[in-house]
Automatic annotation (TrEMBL):
PANTHER family: PLC-LIKE PHOSPHODIESTERASE, PTHR13593
Biological source species: Pseudoneurospora amorphoporcata
Keyword terms: Signal
Signal peptide: 1-22
Ranges where the record places region Disordered: 356-377
A molecular-function term among this protein's GO annotations: phosphoric diester hydrolase activity
Biased composition (Low complexity): 362-377
Name of protein: PLC-like phosphodiesterase
Classification via InterPro entries: PI-PLC_domain (IPR051057), PLC-like_Pdiesterase_TIM-brl (IPR017946)
GO terms of biological process kind: lipid metabolic process
């Protein structure tokens, strides 16, 4: 019989070799080992009413007569950025597909540009420094490497070039505490900085944001948050996340664990205080289950519940959103999910935004999945998954 400690060590080593990652998006280090995998959900759309202040900055410099829809709907054009719910892909560059051998570390089936085509408007990712190059890596570049950040940004920029009526938000985890100037180098090298929106005072939260139309007509339609950097007036389009955003907890281990309490920045004390300060709510909504001590995997079994827009069952994305609306008095400005195509998650954002007839979206398909790596994100992963999982299963059976 194999000793439990030996099993644990072997399992940990093998799982790491296959592309397991640590805590999903915290820049403060790994607390547990987390893997990613998934399947489908159904959605219902009922109304919800709650909004943030709709005041906006200034007037746009160019005529907007050719703008018939903003972020896939004419209803959003004259709504302030902070009064729109932006659906987001958590760890958007880390794929579970053929390009990674269906890596256990993947959080999405489709890359960032496919996500954008499908209506996702918030892309989140983890950034690490490898020999002086900022790369999109899942906890470690030896586990899952989606390539240089600059290359990924260039692909997102190309999508924005060809979709001029869309406002996009980026949220990057500054895993190695690099300087804002390091990020500015790759943003400017990719060319995407030309779209960077610059608040009047980016060092502090504000209840006053421009409308989507104003951002589009001024061509300053990319909002970039980095956790955590020090804001610099030299690069005013790069914003420190927690100066402007607060989050609920992200390490959820059961469908009953979703809640709306403030997790970060802790200095705000409560969601109520954060909202009063002008910070925008980001609602994390992805669940994990415990594979074994110290090892977590996404709760694949319940994904149909987790990503559902329905509001009747514990764990539903729709129910979680409604709960937060009631507690906060405002709707979430941002929502992050794994495997965005299931649900589909965008249905919940549409309901919160009052949209029933979104335009210009492309549905995800087997074809888009096959070509996913030709867009934003070129994943490279260590490892073998099928043989690995079989071996781990055999080892556990020996205990």
């Amino acid at each position: 019989m194999m000793m439990p400690s030996l099993i644990s060590s072997l399992t940990a080593a093998l799982l790491l070799a296959s592309g397991i990652h640590a805590v999903p998006q915290g820049p403060f280090g790994a607390e547990s080992v987390i893997v990613s995998a998934v399947p489908t959900a159904s959605a219902s759309t009922a109304g919800v009413a709650a909004s943030q202040p709709t005041t906006s900055l200034g007037s746009s410099s160019n005529a907007a007569s050719d703008i018939s829809a903003c972020n896939n709907s004419p209803l959003l054009c004259d709504r302030a950025y902070n009064n729109v719910t932006h659906m987001g892909a958590h760890d958007s560059s880390f794929l579970k597909d053929g390009s990674t051998g269906n890596s256990l570390a993947g959080n999405q089936y489709f890359n960032a540009t496919v996500a954008l085509d499908a209506g996702i408007r918030l892309l989140q990712g983890q950034v690490h420094d490898t020999n002086g190059t900022l790369r999109l890596c899942h906890t470690s570049c030896s586990l899952l490497d989606a390539g240089p950040l600059q290359d990924w940004l260039a692909k997102v920029k190309f999508w924005m070039d060809t979709n001029p009526n869309e406002v996009v938000t980026l949220l990057l985890v500054n895993s190695d505490n690099k300087l804002v100037s390091d990020y500015a180098t790759v943003f400017e090298g990719s060319g995407i900085s030309t779209y960077g929106y610059q608040p009047t005072d980016g060092s502090t939260a504000s209840k006053t944001w421009p409308t989507l139309r104003e951002m589009i007509t001024s061509n300053k339609r990319l909002v970039s948050f980095i956790a955590s950097i020090d804001y610099s007036t030299i690069y005013p389009y790069l914003l420190s996340e927690f100066d402007h955003v607060f989050e609920n907890p992200y390490d959820v281990l059961s469908l009953s664990g979703f809640n709306c309490t403030l997790d970060r920045p802790k200095g705000q004390g409560s969601a109520e205080n954060a909202i009063a300060s002008g910070r925008m709510p980001l609602m994390n909504h992805f669940a994990y289950s415990v594979l074994m001590e110290g090892v977590q995997i996404p709760d694949e079994t319940n994904i149909d519940i987790t990503n559902s827009a329905d509001t009747t069952t514990t764990g539903n994305l729709g129910l979680h959103a409604d709960t937060c609306v009631k507690q906060w008095g405002v709707k979430p400005t941002f929502i992050l999910v794994d495997f965005f195509d299931h649900g589909p998650a965008i249905d919940t954002a549409d309901r919160l935004n009052g949209i029933s007839d979104a335009t210009g979206r492309k549905s995800t398909s087997a074809e888009s999945k096959e070509s996913s790596t030709s867009g934003a994100g070129e994943n490279k992963a260590m490892g073998i998954n099928v043989a690995l999982v079989a071996f781990v299963g055999f080892a556990l059976a020996m205990v």
